[in-house]
């Protein structure tokens, strides 16, 4: 190298491409974390088939555990799960073939199909569990008869997690990704993220991606760096 040559730039640690590695959250009963905000919903699922009606609604915010409870119930009842947008009037008898059905409402629904399904379920004494973010009675529905059916549905509500449950959820979400983390990281996140199951899920996903990209362990130090930039 000649005396006039500029010094080479300082080397930086390479940033690894964060791959979307497949991981699966466990929806088994033993992995459901109970707390004051979801105990009533869990008790309802476990009390089946002793329900106040053959069709009920499970209502709560995003990531509150509705799908987890619905999966537990479907396994117990031998039922199947379907998104509301996938329902069609000509397929309703087939959907109820097992006598138990979970409808996960996604905001789009065929009103005629849903009305037909609720009527058929009542006639055949089949069980229907509807999961939704808003109570069915508040849905914008054009069919008056369907609106009446929805107003009559018993509603069980899941609330936002308390402090202890939020910490437990964070630990579980990290464990689902096969990541063992320290209490210092859990405490740090619990005091900074949105206090919801969805907020916990987003925080864990972001930390995992950043750790992969920077080739660093998931830690409080990494979390502090990420949150300092906001």
Summarize the helices and strands and which ones pair or pack.
Layout: H1 39-47, E1 55-59, H2 66-77, E2 80-83, H3 92-95, E3 100-104, H4 111-124, E4 127-132, H5 144-152, E5 155-157, H6 163-176, H7 183-190, H8 197-214, H9 220-228
Parallel strand pairs: 1-4, 1-5, 2-3, 3-4
What labels describe this entry?
5-stranded parallel beta sheet; Rossmann fold; alpha/beta; Helicase, Ruva Protein, domain 3; 230 residues; single chain; elongated
Architecture overview:
It contains nine helices and five strands. Strands 2-3-4-1-5 form a five-stranded parallel sheet. Helix 4 links the parallel strand 3 and strand 4. The chain is an alpha/beta fold and 230 residues long. Helix 1 (39-47) packs parallel to helix 2. Residues 9-22 have low confidence and may be disordered.
- Largest sheet features: 5 strands, parallel
Q: Using the 3D structure, state the CATH architecture of the largest domain.
A: 3-Layer(aba) Sandwich
Number of strands: 5
Helix-strand string: HEHEHEHEHEHHHH
Give a brief outline of the structure:
By secondary structure, the protein is of the alpha/beta class. It has two domains: 123 residues, P-loop containing nucleotide triphosphate hydrolases (Rossmann fold, 3-Layer(aba) Sandwich); 66 residues, Helicase, Ruva Protein, domain 3 (Orthogonal Bundle), CATH 1.10.8.
């Amino acid at each position: 190298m000649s005396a006039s040559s500029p010094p080479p730039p300082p080397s930086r640690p390479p940033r690894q491409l964060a791959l979307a590695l497949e991981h699966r959250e466990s929806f088994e009963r033993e992995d459901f974390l109970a707390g004051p905000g979801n105990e009533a919903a869990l008790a309802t699922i476990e009390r089946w088939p002793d329900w106040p009606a053959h069709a009920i609604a499970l209502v709560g915010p995003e990531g509150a555990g509705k799908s987890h409870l619905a999966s537990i119930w479907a396994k117990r009842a031998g039922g199947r799960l379907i998104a509301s947008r996938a329902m069609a009037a000509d397929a309703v008898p087939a959907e109820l073939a097992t006598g138990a059905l979970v409808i996960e409402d996604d905001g789009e629904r065929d009103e005629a199909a849903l009305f037909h399904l609720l009527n058929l379920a009542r006639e055949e004494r089949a069980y229907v569990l509807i999961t939704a973010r808003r109570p069915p009675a508040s849905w914008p529905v054009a069919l008056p008869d369907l609106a009446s059916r929805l107003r009559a549905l018993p509603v069980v509500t899941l609330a936002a997690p308390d402090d202890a449950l939020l910490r437990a959820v964070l630990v579980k979400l990290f464990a689902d990704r096969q990541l063992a983390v320290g209490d210092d990281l859990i405490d740090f996140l619990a005091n900074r993220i949105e206090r919801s199951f969805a907020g916990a899920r987003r925080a864990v996903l972001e930390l995992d991606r950043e750790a992969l990209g920077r080739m660093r362990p998931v830690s409080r130090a990494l979390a502090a760096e990420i949150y300092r930039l906001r």
